[in-house]
Amino acid sequence: MTSYDRLKPRLRASPKSWLITGVAGFIGSHLLEALLKLDQKVVGLDNFATGKKQNLDAVRNGVTAGQWKNFRFIHGDIRSLPTCRRACRGVDHILHQAALGSVPRSIRDPSTTHAVNVTGFLNMLMAARDRKVKRFVYASSSSVYGDDPALPKAENRIGRPLSPYAAGKQMNELYAEVFARIDGLQTIGLRYFNVFGPRQDSNGPYAAVIPRWITAMTRNQPVTIHGDGKTSRDFCYVENVVQANLLAATVKIGTRNLKPKTSIFNIAVGQRTTLNQLHALLADLLATNTSHLSPLTSHLHSPIHRPFRPGDIRHSHANISKARRLLGYAPTHNIQKGLSESIPSIVTENTKDFASVKGITATNPFV
């Protein structure tokens, strides 16, 4: 039995109060569903800048009426300190997911990215401190490894940031450590490596690569790979991320070599996949499991290659031994299993209202 398996009955027996920022987002909504199914009380904060009401509807349809009554939603923005303080009132644990993702977005609009990802993060830290929250778990990113060439990526070595998004995530980690040292706020940062799964958006200029490619392929449209396709990522299914958040929020600090107040963990699978390999894997899975794709072989196997983009790191591969050892993290889904489970819902969700355009480009595989 894993640490996560042992945690679930303990949570049901002793419910806590949780705050999820970015609750209507892809990851936030999965965290909400997991906690409600464990009979926890949850406050959710979102401004719907990138989150969707449909994600909350999906959660409501996936839990019982009694469980849904344990959820309270606040429509608000983390750039407002009073809103953050209101959301933190009476909360035991915070799972901070609210952010503006995307490397390209941050390059085009660094000011807004900073306001949300750094100033908003600082507001949440101050609110958590003032409300005496027990644990502050936050979403960091593999982007903090920047130009460091070492593989696999280990938590104790990072490089220079390659984008405003990456710089902001590094600042999050620095601020979390400062608040832990000065104010005693317990903080744990989770460096996500390319999370994917159901409810992930395929639309818009900053959509993630997996749902965007799936949507393009199902519409008989070619996808674009920036570079030679040998760029690699450690793709992580969302269920692994849910597990990591709940373990991080409840693990005992001061034991098992955890730092007394703060720590950072890679959250991934520990498996490298190139974009060329990802394209071939998606093509095979879609052609095998979606009968109407059988005549679309030319598009499924012929991506368009364009120049590399600024701000993208070349390779990303996580060393997850620290999370395994100290959190009890045990990822249940590799990329193949994650894709097999998520493709049906991604196809259903992201092909309904997808505008028909020529030459769909996957613009952000590197969050």
Description:
β5 (135-141), α8 (164-183) and β6 form a beta-alpha-beta unit. The protein has a domain at 3-193 and 238-267: NAD(P)-binding Rossmann-like Domain (Rossmann fold, 3-Layer(aba) Sandwich). It has 367 residues and is of the alpha/beta class. It contains 14 helices and 13 strands. It is globular, with a radius of gyration of 20 Å. α2 packs across α10 (238-250) and α7 packs parallel to α8. Helices cover 43% and strands 14% of the residues. The strands form four sheets. It has a seven-stranded parallel β-sheet with strand order 3-2-1-4-5-6-11, with helices on both faces. A two-stranded parallel sheet has the order 7-10. The chain has helices spanning 3-13, 26-37, 53-62, 65-68, 81-88, 103-108, 110-130, 164-183, 209-218, 238-250, 275-289, 297-300, 321-327, 335-350; strands at residues 17-21, 41-46, 71-75, 93-96, 135-141, 187-192, 195-196, 224-226, 232-233, 236-237, 262-267, 273-274, 304-306.
